[in-house]
Design goal:
The complex is a heterodimer of chains A (274) and B (362). Chain A is mainly α. Chain A is built from 13 helices and no strands. In chain A, α2 crosses α13, α3 packs across α10 and α3 packs across α12. Chain B folds into 2 domains: 225 residues, P-loop containing nucleotide triphosphate hydrolases (Rossmann fold); 122 residues, OB fold (Dihydrolipoamide Acetyltransferase, E2P) (Beta Barrel), CATH 2.40.50.100. Classes of the chains: A mainly alpha (274), B alpha+beta (362). The interface between A and B is medium-sized, with 20 and 29 residues.
Chain lengths: 274, 362
């Protein structure tokens, strides 16, 4: 009896510790940010968000995110298919290198891109000569965002694809479906949740990318200033309410994205059950 | 011929299919039987177009299919692990091959209903594969394969993933289904009992080569090689000279067979149920043996014997016969073979065992 009691208390303690730690680390700061941002009421919050600079910054962030996500989804899918299905020399190396962006600080990633694509870079030199500006401009920022987010789709899709195997595709072929139809009707629906997770994480990460962009963008007000760079500048400048408002908006988008994703997944899985 | 395979060869590492040729007549159910690594699944996959042969030809219903892509071959394929589309309902699974053909919706619905009825799963059309048992899933896989009316049906170890009771049920069910539908079927198995129970013809494979083919009973009664003899069921293998020197009930040669070239390099194959035990010498040819162990297996009794020269022998009796003899461990008894097969080992060509004249059936 005494033992049971002790273990019950132990369990409560463990739960309390985990929840408390989570609250201290994530919940409290999140609420504090929201509170601070809305301290003067909704009106100033909205005005700060709708300022010309803020709107331009968000527009840029969204356009970069959109392009980076589309490209990385397609590329990540292809990469995962190659890693799982093809045998080639250097596959193990490629498999390991995909994770490099996770391991390397984004600021270093930015630096690497500047070295290659900068005005005096190996490739940048020729591109600039041809009138095509990469670094300190939109293409460079997309490049930096893509670099940082490459692993998400690949890492989410590879295990799902491996588990999926090739039996179902082979059956589809014997039933008269060509490669393309087999991919759309059989392969893609089977890996969609892995893919959707990867895409969601890619979007969330793209929205919040800062370090690599700081190096690559040159942070030119109104031209290469993304939402995160805008937050960075407004904190240092003299109207932090802009920073708070933008932060809440940015965090809110990511949060809604993740929650929505989780809800849809639960619903569909309740249908299919594996 | 519904399926014709000619000189099929494929090498994959240390494993190979070598110069395999056979034909499957229209409407028959044929088994590719062999141990794992004998190349049977590879041959099936080559016929389906899922794998390419290094050389050789595949013909389907008289048409050369060697270079035809999978999706145009018109084969139904059933995998060991069902390979149902998990994100589709049972109805959608069965309809897949019909939708690919762009048939009208009403016709697809009619055909799917017809097939679900055939595999006795009419009430399950809106469920997902995960909600079905293994046996049900395999029936769905079969319905899906049959839906587009394939020229031939190919089944790769279709009962391999099921537990033994369901497997037995599904086996006899498949045979019945085939008698109704009559689609030419080729199925791969490593289980000789399964092959015997289901098929019209059996092709026995060993290390990528055909050992023998023919109707089950013929294979069993006239196996062409030691491999086939051993693979088709339990068998005693006895060195010929050991048998020749054996005591007999009468002072004649134990096997009334003439072995012109055999010498010591021949072996005798006797199945456990092809021998009789008697207490008294009754004038027939036989051997004297010592009963070492009796094992009761329900309807039959397994008797482990030792011949005078030390050779082990396994005999299977009915329970009644064992009771009649009042058989007990430690008894000495006569063994009379009813039926056996002698293979002579030939150094050349190919160092394989060859059957020799003088197989003996009483």
């Amino acid at each position: 009896m005494g033992n049971d009691r002790a273990s019950a208390w132990g369990r409560r303690l463990l739960v309390g510790l985990v929840v408390g730690w989570f609250a201290a680390l994530i919940l409290v700061p999140t609420l504090a940010l929201a509170r601070t941002a809305l301290a003067g009421g909704f009106r100033p919050f909205w005005d700060a968000l709708m300022s010309a600079d803020a709107r331009r910054a968000f527009g840029l962030t969204l356009s970069i995110t959109a392009v980076a996500t589309v490209v990385n989804t397609l590329f990540g899918l292809a990469f995962a298919l190659v890693l799982v299905r093809q045998k080639f020399w250097g596959r193990a190396i490629a498999d390991g290198l995909v994770d490099l962006p996770f391991a390397v600080s984004p600021i270093i990633a930015g630096l690497m891109l500047v070295i290659v694509y900068g005005p005096n870079g190996w490739l940048g030199r020729h591109l600039e000569a041809a009138g095509f500006k990469v670094v300190y401009s939109w293409p460079g920022m997309v490049l930096a965002t893509m670099f940082v987010t490459i692993p998400f789709v690949v890492r989410e899709v590879v295990p799902v694809l491996r588990e999926f195997g090739i039996d179902q595709e082979e059956v589809a072929r014997t039933l008269g479906a060509g490669r393309w139809r087999t991919f759309w009707r059989v392969t893609l629906p089977s890996i969609r949740w892995g893919l959707a997770y990867g895409v969601t994480l890619t979007v969330a990460r793209s929205l919040g990318e800062f370090g690599a962009l700081l190096v690559v963008s040159g942070n030119i007000l109104g031209r290469t200033q993304t939402a995160t760079l805008y937050i960075h500048d407004t904190i240092e400048g003299f109207h932090p309410e802009g920073a708070y408002a933008a932060s809440v908006a940015l965090a809110g988008i990511s949060f809604v994205l993740l929650i929505g994703m989780e809800l849809v997944r639960k619903r569909v899985e309740a249908h299919e059950k594996h | 011929m519904a399926i014709a395979v000619r000189n099929l060869t494929k090498r994959l590492g240390n494993f190979a299919v070598e110069d395999v040729s056979f034909e499957v007549p229209e409407g028959q159910l044929v088994a590719l039987l062999g141990p794992s690594g004998s190349g049977k699944s590879t041959i099936l996959r080559i016929i389906a177009g899922l794998e390419k042969a290094d050389s050789g030809e595949v013909e389907l219903t008289g048409e050369d299919a060697t270079y035809m892509p999978v999706q145009r071959r018109g084969v139904g394929f059933v995998f060991q692990h069902y390979a149902l589309f998990r994100h589709m309902t049972i109805r959608q699974n069965v309809a897949f091959g019909l939708e690919v053909q762009r048939l009208p919706k009403a016709e697809i619905k009619r055909r799917v209903d017809e097939l679900l009825n055939l595999v006795q799963l009419s009430g399950y059309s809106e469920r997902y594969p995960s909600q079905l048992s293994g046996g049900q899933r395999q029936r769905v896989a079969l319905a899906r394969a049959l839906a587009p009316r394939p020229k031939v049906l190919l089944l790769d170890e279709p009962f391999g993933a099921l537990d033994s009771r369901v497997r037995d049920e599904l086996r006899s069910w498949l045979r019945k289904l085939h008698d109704e539908v009559h689609v030419t079927s080729l199925f791969v198995t490593h289980d000789q009992q399964e092959a015997f129970e289901v098929s019209d013809q059996i092709v026995v494979l060993n290390r990528g080569k055909i050992e023998q083919m023919g109707p089950p009973q013929e294979l069993y009664e006239r196996p062409a090689s030691p491999f086939v003899t051993e693979f088709l069921g339990a068998v005693n293998v006895l060195p010929l000279d050991s048998i020749l020197s054996m005591d007999t009930m009468q002072d004649e040669a134990p096997l009334p067979v003439d072995f012109p070239t055999a010498g010591g390099r021949a072996r005798v194959y006797v199945r456990p149920h092809d021998m009789e035990l008697t207490r008294q010498s009754d004038g027939r040819t036989g051997w004297f043996a010592h009963v070492r162990r009796l094992t009761h297996l329900g309807g039959t009794v397994r008797v482990e014997l030792k011949l005078l020269d030390g050779t082990d022998l396994l005999v299977q009796l009915t329970r009644e016969r064992s009771r009649e003899l009042e058989l007990a461990e430690g008894d000495d008894i006569y063994v009379v073979p009813r039926n056996w097969k002698v293979f002579e080992e030939r150094p050349r060509p190919e160092d394989r065992m060859q059957p020799i004249e003088g197989d003996y059936v009483i």
